[in-house]
Every structure is written in structure tokens, then in C-alpha cells.
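Researcher: Let's try something more involved. This one mixes different molecule types, so please make sure each is placed in the same coordinate frame as the others.
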Amino acid sequence: MTRPARIGNAQGFWGDRGDAAAELLAREPGLDALTLDYLAEVSLSILALQRDRDPALGYARDVVEVVRSLAPYWRDGGACRLITNAGGLNPEGCARACAEELRQAGAPPMTVGVVDGDDVLATVRDLAGLGEAADPLRNLDTGEPIATVLDRLVTANAYLGAAPIVEALNRGAQIVITGRVADPSLTVAPVVRHFGWDLNDLDRVAGATVAGHLIECGTQVTGGIATDWLDIPDPAHIGFPIVEVDADGSCVVTKPPGTGGRVDARTVTEQLLYEIGDPDNYLSPDATVSFLGLSVEDLGSDRVRVRGAQGRPAPPSYKVSATYRDGYRAQGMLTIYGRHAAAKASRCGEIVLWRVREAGYPLREVTVERLGAGDAVPGVPSSVDRDALMEVVLRVAVADPSREAVERFSKELMPLITSGPQGITGYSEGRPRVHPVFRYWPSLVDCDRVRPRVTLVEATADATE
Amino acid sequence: MRPNDTSTVQLGRIARARSGDKGTGANVGVFVPSDDLYALVREQLTADRVADFFRPLGVAGVTRYELPNLRALNFVLKGVLGRITRVDAQGKALGQAILEVPIELPARLLPSNDPRGS
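Model: All components are placed in one shared frame. Result:
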């Protein structure tokens, strides 16, 4: 029997622990592949801003340092493959930067695979004016037509599947850098290659998709954000997850021995349910997965068996993640200590917003929150006695199409330090910073309008590129 | 108290949860450790009940999915994340919030410890 494919994850989002990859491979040098996820829904719009400033950028630069941290592992003969969507809007630029880093770090000759073709901004613009052809581009949430935001679109990228990553691996890539791909596909690809599965073997592909879903958010499956988080052991050294996918598509979720955190039926079940929508129709570009036959079996010693995924063909269209500009936002916080803290905070918030409105800026969206008084989930019954609180954090946030309006808000918050209630404090951050707002536009595009592409970049000791 | 006498407890005494975003909606999963408790939450934690509970957030509709294999219910709360200025714009806090929903529980099913932590 073929041994399981062992896939780790060492990055659940852009901002996750940078030394996790090297630490994981130090403990588990025999992993078949390591996945790193950098792209949340609106990450690409931030990368678009970077690329506007410098065409050589547009990728998650942090990954270059992760690659450098792994150079000694590869130099010592390590064979784990690295698969990441850090390429963002510029996978090739990212691959070249990684190749250069490897050369400088004295790594052995390596092939870096580049997967792109996910950028469909031009296609979306072409289709937008074509009547019925533009229909799949309607906002999947709201049903609005793409024309509503066409002139404000910043990015549009299709969630590619595992196939081009498998191709890159088959052509010898030790590192695969992609743009937008579905998060579970980062795991599906090395599993498919390991077993030589046909991508139409849908139950097995569904099993690998579930495995990918379980590890794509890193430590969320090893005790992070667990309901009983206070009982999770050694959270300072929480281990990143590993899935061992078997030939039948079932998997064991685990983590390296000696790390903190916990993998049991409860942490795994929580993460199974995370952001899945309809559990009978979990959509991915590799398969439509049903979670309704899954079983979760606690094997002890931080090992949990998940089996029973069922797959049906993926939809004939790719999901597209588009982003568009939607004005500006700013947020500021002040701490209010003393009797009637919540009432004082409410009044402070009202004062700021009054003054902005009196200056002639109506503001499209405003939020005043008294954090500590239950306002993170406003209006929902909780046991907090707001009148008895001795301290709350006042948070005021605004959004508006006009940058000037948001700047005005930014100038009106801090005067409360001297005009507000006694005990107002915690202003060392200064005026709130004004940020552009990018919003997410989920839609669809027919698969035959998207051309995934695989190219290779050689990282050799002699490379001068 | 007799075994079938009921008391009102928070859902968090018997269930675990996890939440996140799904576009402008939120996804909230809930599961319990026994078949008895699953029958109970399936009856009491209806889509309407959850919609009422989260009404102040501007819920535009709640869809409930059942996963009896995991003794789980998965809720999609439409429209609750339409406001980008809220501190919890990604719905990460809603899992803890749903665990505050009051549940009528027979004494015989009341667990000795609280899964939200000791």
C-alpha cells in the first residue's frame, strides 16, 4: 500500500508567524509538501496598490524571507515541496525574487513553478458590456450587475484549481508560486501528484479538498480560536497542522509532537464547519464536496481521522474574486475610565459625529462602539451590566466616498482628550489614519474563458536574473 | 430536581461553535457531543430563533443546514456583515455570541463542566 501523502501548513493568512515554516520542517523534515496561504478576499487590492508604485511588486513579499529561511533545509537535502499563493498579482515576479534569494543563500539548483492566468480583469471588462454574457458577473451576494462598480474595479481573479499546480509539480517544480487559487487546492495538488490520481476521481479529490480545508487556516485546527481556548495546552508554542492523506481520500489531522495546542475531534469539527456555507455543496474548482457523509474519529495523541467525503463534478464556472474601490475609512479608539463609562463613551461618540456633520460632511457609514460593554456584537443579549462598568474603550469608525469627510472625522476625535470626560486616556496612537476602502465582489466566469498557465523559473547558483 | 425537569441554560453549556464570514453574510457552525443534545438543539435552535437573536445586527435571513453526522447545525446569516466600519466586520465574534442563546434543558442532560473553558 502506498504511504500517505503528508502535507503541512505553516501560514494561515498574511500576517501569520513567519518562522513557522522552518520550525515545522525542523520537526517534520519528511513532509511531502508545505502550503502557505497569503491571500484573503481583498488582499489582491492591496497588492494592486503596491504594483502601481512598482511593477516588480504585487506579491506577498514576506514569502521571500520564508523561502530564505528554508534554504538550509534544502541545502541539507530536504525534499519537501513548497506551495503558496504568495504570488498574488505577480507570481512570476515573486518566483524570480525567491530564486534570487535561494541563489544568494547558497541553495542547490531548484525549479520554481509559476501558476498564473487567474487574472481576469480584462475579461471581466470585456464581458461587462455584453448583456447576457455579463450575467454571471452579478454580485453573488446581492445580485447587483457588474456595471455598478465597473469603473471602480481594481482586481478580478478567478479561483483556479489544483490542475496547474499538479502540472508544475510534474514538471519538476520544488516550489510552486501561484496567484489566486482556491485555498484547498494548495493541498489537493500535492496529494493528487503523490498518488497519481485522476482529477476526475471525485470522492478522493473531495477527501483531499476536505483535508485542505482543514489546514488552510493554519493553527485554527490545532487549538486556535477553539471554543475552550483557555484549556488549550501551551498556546505560546501552538503547532501548525499536518494532514496525512490516505489512498482512499480519508485523512488524519495531526501536528508535530512536542508542540503546543491540541488536535482532537472537537478542534477538528469546529474547523470543518468554518465558513462552509451549504455542507452538501461545498464548492471548489476541483470538486463539489458533500460534508454530510463525513465522520470524525479521535485516535488520541493529537490524531483525528476524517473520512467519508463525497465529490461531484465542480461547477462549469470559476468563482471570481473581484475588488473595487469604495471611498475611504478611518477608525479611532480612546479609553474611558470612571463611573458611567459606557454613557460617557456614547456621548463622546455623538459629539464627534455631530461636529463632522456640522462641518458639512454627512458621512455614509458611522459606527460608535463601547468595547467592553458588549458592542462587538451590538444589540445581542448578553450578561454585561453596562451601567456598572468602570471602563470601556470607545471606538468610532466612519466610511465615506469623500476623503475630505473622513479626514475631517480624523481631526475631530482627539480634541476629546481635553474636552471629554475625566478619565479619558490612551491616545498615544494620535489621529486616526485614513485608508482607502476596497470591497469584495464575488461572481462567476465560465471556465472556458480562463487560461491557467504554468511556467518554470530556474534557481541556479549561476542565475543572474 | 427530577431528571426531566428543565432549566434554562445558555447554549454554551452544551455546545461549541465557530464563526466567520461568507461575503456580506456570516457562517456560524454549532455542534454538541451527544445524540440527545442534538435532538434538543435541532428542535430549539431554529433558523427563526437564530434570526431573532441576531436581529439587531440587521439579519436579512437565516438558512439552517443540518449535519447529523457531526451532530452539527450550520447557519448562514445573510447581510449581517454589510457594515465595514464595525469592529467585528468578519463575524469572528458571532460564534461566542450564539452560545448565549437560552436553551431549555432537562436536568439529566446538563453536563457537569462548561465547554467554554474552566
